[in-house]
Amino acid sequence: MRIVMPSTTYRAHDVRLAARPASLRGRTVGFLDGWGRRESDGSFAMYPLMEELKRLLAERHGTGETIWIRKPNISKPAPKEQIAELVTRADVIINGEAA
Length: 99
What we know:
Low-confidence stretches: none
Strand order of the largest sheet: 6-3-7
Order of helices and strands: EEEEEHEHE
Distance between the termini: 14 Å
Mean pLDDT: 84
Structural class: alpha/beta
Strand content: 15-25%
Shape: globular
Oligomer: single chain
Number of helices: 2
Radius of gyration: 14 Å
């Protein structure tokens, strides 16, 4: 698996992206999950692809704490309160997954 941290400017549209840290070692990673996985007791847990990414980031890049937040509705943007919590608590954020 290769981790890609794009440059901070997307040249085709002159859009500024969030700053990328030089390293992920010890960084708090926030996951904003639209899917989740329902457990047998009815609760939700992290989507399996995100669980694997979390494991790989820790194993290969020494990431620190993980924050996982499940959006209430996959087809709508996350509520502002969830975004604010992630921005406040996480050094880097992974939003969504591609399966």
